[in-house]
């Protein structure tokens, strides 16, 4: 399996440790992983702001960079959702369809092709899982509280196989954090209130580390935590799945 590693632009610029952890996880899984050096943004910010027409060249460049790989894997549910669901603005060539159909968020990829305990990770902390909207309701990484599905969570399944990790139960476990991309810019007050509500739920539940599969949401929560100097850490799920702490 030839895997193209997609690292979203904001992770590349601000959270390189998440990118490294994702790469090391794929190497541990034994796949043939490659990082296309010409990759850029997937076009999501433009699309979210209503400028889909202006994003076409960016989306097409993404296809050109990743069209030769069997699978595309990235540590961002929202970016992967954009590729799968919003690249319909491009002519639906065989290459575009291939990229859309074979793009996976990291947890989704591991759950589909590997045993959940294969990474043999260890992380002895109390962890709270933030389930981002794009991953949960878009990619269906888990069941939603507003639907009557049989309960499941691909992220929880992976975390439950991490030695020493205690997954804490939240009161509102699949509520939005308020980031929403450009929503946090145009509706700052609402976004901040929603984020603080999520952080409070984690703190009240005894969480030491908040994790999730979408670094953009975690970035929003981390900013609020740092400003308030609250006693809680934030880590992407890739960093935890790649940990070997005792």
Detail the poorly predicted runs.
none
Distance between the termini: 32 Å
Number of domains: 2
The Rg value, from CA coordinates, equals: 17 Å
Describe the structure.
This is (Fe-S)-binding protein. The protein has 246 residues and is an alpha/beta fold. The chain has 2 domains: 112 residues, no CATH class; 116 residues, no CATH class. The protein has 13 helices and 8 strands. The strands form 2 sheets. Strands 2-1-3-4 form a 4-stranded parallel sheet, with helices on both faces. Strand 7, helix 12 and strand 8 form a beta-alpha-beta unit. Helix 11 packs across helix 12.
Key features?
alpha/beta; 4-stranded parallel sheet; 8 strands; globular
Can you give me a brief rundown of this structure?
It comes from Namhaeicola litoreus. This protein is 46% helix and 12% strand.
């Amino acid at each position: 399996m030839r895997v193209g590693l997609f690292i979203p632009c904001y992770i590349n610029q601000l959270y390189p440790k998440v990118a490294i952890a994702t790469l090391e996880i794929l190497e541990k899984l034994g796949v043939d992983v490659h990082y296309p050096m010409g990759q850029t943004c997937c076009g999501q910010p433009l699309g979210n702001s209503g400028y889909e027409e202006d994003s076409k060249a960016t989306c097409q460049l993404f296809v050109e960079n990743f069209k030769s790989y069997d699978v595309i894997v990235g540590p961002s549910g929202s970016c992967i959702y954009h590729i799968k669901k919003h690249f319909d603005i491009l002519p639906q060539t065989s290459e575009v369809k291939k990229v859309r159909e074979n793009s996976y968020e990291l947890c989704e990829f591991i759950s589909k092709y590997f045993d959940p305990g294969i990474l043999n990770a260890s992380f002895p902390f109390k962890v709270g899982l933030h389930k981002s909207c794009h991953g949960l309701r878009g990619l269906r990484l888990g069941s939603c509280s507003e639907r009557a599905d049989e309960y499941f969570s691909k992220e929880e399944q992976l975390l439950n196989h991490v030695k020493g990790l205690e997954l804490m139960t939240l009161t509102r476990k699949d509520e939005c954090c308020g980031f929403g991309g450009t929503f946090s810019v145009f509706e700052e007050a609402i976004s901040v209130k929603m984020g603080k509500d999520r952080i409070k739920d984690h703190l009240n539940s005894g969480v030491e580390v908040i994790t999730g599969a979408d670094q953009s949401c975690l970035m929003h929560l981390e900013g609020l935590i740092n400003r308030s100097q609250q006693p809680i850490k934030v880590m992407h799920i890739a960093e935890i799945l790649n940990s070997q702490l005792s």
